[in-house]
Amino acid sequence: MAFDIDMIKKVYKTMPERVDKARQIVGKPLTLSEKILYAHLWDGNPTTAFTRGKDYVDFAPDRIALQDATAQMALLQFMQAGKPKVAVPTTTHCDHLIQAKQGAAPDLKRANETSSEVFDFLASVSNKYGIGFWKPGAGIIHQVVLENYAFPGGMMIGTDSHTVNAGGLGMVAIGVGGADAVDVMAGMAWELRFPKLIGVKLTGNLNGWTASKDVILKVAGILTVKGGTGAIVEYFGPGAKNLSCTGKGTICNMGAEIGATTSTFGYDDSMERFLRATDRNEVADEANKIREYLTGDPEVYENPEEYFDQVIEIDLDKLRPHLNGPFTPDLATPVGQLGELAKENGWPIKVDWGLIGSCTNSSYEDLTRAASIAKQAVDKNIKAKSDFGINPGSEQIRYTAERDGILKIFEDLDATIFTNACGPCIGQWDRSDLKGDEKNTIVHSFNRNFSKRADGNPNTHAFVGSPEMVAAIAISGRLDFDPMNDVLINEDGQEVKLDAPQGIELPPKGFDVEDAGYVEPVEDGSNVEVSVSETSERLQLLEPFTPLGNSITGAKLLIKAFGKCTTDHISMAGPWLRYRGHLDNISNNMLIGAVNAFGKKTNFVKNQLTGEYGGVPDVARDYKAKGIHTIVVGDHNYGEGSSREHAAMEPRHLGVAAVLVKSFARIHETNLKKQGMLGLTFDNENDYDLIQEDDTINFLDLDQFAPDKPLHIEFVHADGSKDVIKVNHTYNQQQIDWYNEGSALNLIKKQNA
């Protein structure tokens, strides 16, 4: 069934005229990304050619997707917006709050018991405001969106950084914080700086052990975790057309790991096949009517250097399988070279777990390719040397895979089939085999491998690969195993070589499911009651933030973060997910993972009022109680990773007025702005070294806060000496208005009133 078909038809009806007009205004052929962007302008038909990387533009996204961990705060904010119903099609997906431990049935039962309060809240809010609700166990948000809602040429935003997965079906799909989603749900424009464009030309065909995952693992190695910041990555070329739709989704999904605004592919036969296989013939028929508008113009792909800001070319015939890691998703190593590198760096060679699934690699094709390796192990009497865990992407995939005997193959290898949910990928993993900080290695088909992410252990070395490579490495139990060249010894003492994986793009007997897990909202939700207990540990109604004002003096340094500081460092997931709907409680994890530049410890900062050291949230609360603002200082790509706005709301709640860094990840910088804070960057990066532990901070010209105008901050050191530094910002006038009102939500409420 095609959801929201009338909306899709409306998009397709206006798209040709808008694209033609944009091509005329820009004065040259257009990339797919430009076509979708110009077709979704808030003001309708294009009238201006926008400058990439500079102009802020108002857009009108077609739909919104929320996952349960971020939906709580997004919907708590929307409840304050004064609207009776969401203005665009919106869905809520319960996939983050289910811990992987024993297996699908007991884990789902336990989640429904322990998180019933949150699930009931999300269900009732969704019902009240016209939001489609996907129950716990229905599947991982991005796979469910790909199977049900994504459509070529559309624009969507979602409160998860991996919303970009929908680029596999030719969308411009972008991860945002909850406040951005609230704007669109409330019927307002969504603002984005017009992205730069990176083109990736793919030639040749994947073969042997190489998978779609290896394309993005290679790209991550080229661009690094910040190389895509502020850009859309558009894939094209004959190699792109040779990839499956879900394979394209995998590539787009991990574009979040290079900081890209999003990634996308032009509409082609593989997308049409996927639409028809997922019961969306009507969408495919409508897309076919405007097919040339759903991909880049031929001239663009013939001479990409003239139309993209950067071009990368990858020959799929020559691409090698990769494993990326540990501790960062851009440390790319071809499989055959990993053993030597591991020995040089002291990475544990023994592999304890192989994990297959996540929003990145949990499609039917992914499971069949990994199962083809698992079946060889079973048939050739090879005992897996590592533990196995599988997370199917949706109930539709799980049901179909069980029907087709795919899951039984994994079970014959003693794998644990977890719930159709995120599980270990986001730290929702009760790992039974290790305690404490024991050094160990795992391999998985997820997207991120930051320290502590999967199991809370800082010494778990996690490596990212394709599902089939994860299967082979886990079966061997060794990080240095190269299935293309090495042999295994089976239980009979015989040497056995694994054959290359074989996958099935789409189920030959079609997809099937008994209960997909979807709940349609009532037509009129005005009588639906939403209650939040005042004594709840997990949910808390929001109080508006007070404006910080244009005179901030006597502020204190809270922490000077050293090195990588992702959203996992700022607001950890794992066990903290239970507090995602309670701002005060979850603020107790604020920056506890960040390394303090003074002393190189985590969660250990100086309280200048007492001279004693304490946890970051505790010190922040003490300053706040005494009416003293604080600032946070950081390094490059600060806020890399998840879209979670808690990483901005928690500092705001605990009295942080400004975050000053060498550079920001896009989503986090926007989240800070939305919450009425100052997100600033050093004009001279070396000024980072001037900031001392006992500094008192004065903003000298905040009363002149204006677009394109730098600010100046005075750092008064303990010995009485001072340094005045110049800092930059990217605020436009509307974003300054958010700051002046205390938050973007405050401004929405004021306008609605």
From TrEMBL:
**Cofactor(s) the protein needs:** [4Fe-4S] cluster
Catalytic activity, reaction form: citrate = D-threo-isocitrate
Which positions fall inside the Aconitase/3-isopropylmalate dehydratase large subunit alpha/beta/alpha domain? Answer: 34-477
Give the Aconitase A/isopropylmalate dehydratase small subunit swivel domain ranges: 557-685
The annotated pathway is: Carbohydrate metabolism; tricarboxylic acid cycle; isocitrate from oxaloacetate: step 2/2
Under the cellular component aspect of Gene Ontology, which terms does the record hold? cytosol
Name the Gene3D superfamilies for this protein. Aconitase, Domain 2, Aconitase, domain 3, Aconitase, domain 4
GO BP annotation list: tricarboxylic acid cycle
- Check the record and name the InterPro entries matching this protein: Acnase/IPM_dHydase_lsu_aba_1/3, Acoase/IPM_deHydtase_lsu_aba, Aconitase/3IPM_dehydase_swvl, Aconitase/IPM_isomerase, Aconitase_4Fe-4S_BS, Aconitase_4Fe-4S_dom, Aconitase_dom2, Aconitase_mito-like
Query: EC number(s)?
Result: 4.2.1.3
Pfam family, any one: Aconitase
PROSITE patterns the UniProt entry points to: ACONITASE_1
- A GO molecular-function descriptor: aconitate hydratase activity
Q: Per UniProt, which keywords does this protein have?
A: Iron, Iron-sulfur, Lyase, Metal-binding, Transit peptide, Tricarboxylic acid cycle
Q: Which family does it belong to?
A: Belongs to the aconitase/IPM isomerase family.
The name of this protein is Aconitate hydratase A
